[in-house]
TrEMBL record:
It comes from Rhizobium setariae. Keywords: Periplasm. This is Extracellular solute-binding protein. The lineage of its organism: Bacteria, Pseudomonadati, Pseudomonadota, Alphaproteobacteria, Hyphomicrobiales. One of its GO terms (cellular component) is periplasmic space. InterPro entries: Bact_solute-bd_prot1 (IPR050490), SBP (IPR006059). It is found in: Periplasm.
């Protein structure tokens, strides 16, 4: 072989090697783009930390998921509710969102939707009856502009809680009207007991009072009309009246001393120890009452009717408390949806009810056996008979409006903000839609 022919042969072999290398790279790239679900790993963030019933639930759910889907590996990040929102907001703002994550409905979720950061689940929900497994009113709270961006998990309602044993001892009866409740509060106060426990340090506990009064006076759907940018949306004169009625409760010393600086947990202890007779709070109160002293018996009644109120007096404050969504950036959406379907399955949701004593959004999962008599009674006697279910104002509002809502209500309660000013300030913030 001559030097020239040897050189030509080596050049040909080199070119073939380069061509084979390029074909291999192209084939690998195609395989990865055509089959993204093969990645088999998802980042999953949740806020079920720091509270035993939450920890028990998520450990059960993820443990069962690992058994049934051993091919899908989860990189799990857990946080407490108080710090979770900040952590998630930071991740979303930096462009490094988790693949699947816990989120709140309403304004919190809608901010991510507005930023194009959420994967729309419509096509997935339309398959195999998955979408029909949820309560329609619950899916509506995670839907924006006709698209569902998260699956709702649990639904909390707010009722009045009372110590049945204490009421029986004192000869008190649960009131049906607002006037009857105020008369009862005077009797309780005269007996040296706080009528209504309230710890408003974190601002949200007092919102239940304002919202129910607005619902009874004006009707449900008030905040939803602002969120949906209805040109006719307004709190009406009822907004100022509701703030005024809340202020009157504080002036009459129906709440504990220093309630605006008291935590919800501290207020709960006053209630459980018999130092306060009633408490307006969510259905999570059932779990919070698990360690009550001997002799305590938890009872509930609906928020009373308000004379001459224009709202449907059977309406219940109830909203989706948590949901799970998928990031638009998630590369492995097939497995992400598999995880969501599992978390929202009847099996997992019934266990959720059993462990957390909270109603869930999946039809048929809030059974009497899993829920217990109190929660099942609320579900059956109040929720099912309600004219409307009105979602939580503060989670439905956009973030800036929520902050105005919190600060205005705290100011009304401590007397530093006039009820009419609070209503005007809140309506202005809601119309700004920020």
């Amino acid at each position: 072989m001559t030097a020239a022919s040897y050189t030509k042969l080596t050049d040909t072999i080199g070119e073939d090697i380069v061509r084979l290398k390029n074909l291999f790279i192209a084939g690998a790239a195609f395989a990865l783009s055509a089959f993204p679900a093969m990645a088999g790993e998802l980042s999953f963030w949740h806020a079920y930390a720091g509270q035993q019933d939450k920890v028990d639930f998520i450990n059960f759910a993820l443990g069962e998921f690992a058994k049934k889907h051993p091919d899908i590996k989860l990189d799990v990040v857990a946080a407490e509710q108080s710090s979770y929102k900040t952590k998630l907001n930071t991740a979303m703002a930096s462009g490094n969102p988790p693949d699947v994550f816990y989120t709140l409905p309403g304004g919190f979720l809608n901010a991510f939707v507005k930023g194009g950061q959420m994967y729309a689940l419509d096509q997935d929900l339309a398959k195999d009856g998955w979408g029909n497994s949820f309560l329609e009113s619950a899916i509506a709270q995670t839907t924006k502009d006709g698209h569902a961006y998260a699956v709702p998990v649990d639904v909390d309602s707010v009722v009045f809680w009372y110590n049945k044993a204490l009421f029986a001892e004192k000869g008190w009866t649960a009131p049906a009207t607002y006037d009857e409740m105020l008369a009862l509060a005077d009797k309780i106060k005269a007996d040296g007991i706080v009528p209504f426990s309230l710890g408003n340090k974190d601002s949200w506990p007092a919102t239940f009072w304002f919202q129910y009064l607005e619902m009874r006076l004006k009707g449900s759907g008030v905040i939803a009309s602002f969120v949906n940018q209805d040109a006719n949306a307004t709190l009406g004169t009822e907004g100022a009246k509701a703030f005024e009625m809340v202020a009157e409760l504080a002036k009459k010393d129906y709440f504990p001393t220093g309630f605006n600086g008291m935590s919800d947990q501290e207020a709960n202890m006053l209630f459980l120890n018999g130092q306060a007779a009633m408490l307006l709070n969510g259905t999570w109160q059932i779990g919070a009452s698990a360690d009550a002293p001997e002799g305590f018996e938890l009872g509930f009644f609906a928020f009373p009717t308000v004379k001459d109120g224009a709202g449907d007096q059977s309406d219940v404050l109830a909203g989706v408390a948590a949901s799970f969504g998928v990031s638009e950036k998630a590369a492995n959406k097939v497995d992400a949806v598999t995880l969501l379907k599992f978390l929202s399955s009847t099996e997992v949701m019934t266990k959720y009810v059993e462990l957390r004593k909270t109603m869930v959004t999946v039809k048929g999962a809030t059974t009497e056996a899993a829920a217990g008599p109190v929660l099942y009674g609320i579900s059956n006697d109040l929720m099912n008979k309600a004219g409307h279910l009105d979602s939580f104002y503060d989670t439905a509002m956009p973030p800036a409006a929520t902050n105005i809502y919190y600060s205005s209500l705290q100011g009304v309660l401590d007397g530093s903000v006039k009820p009419a000013d609070a209503a005007a300030r809140l309506e202005e913030a809601l119309k700004a839609n920020k």
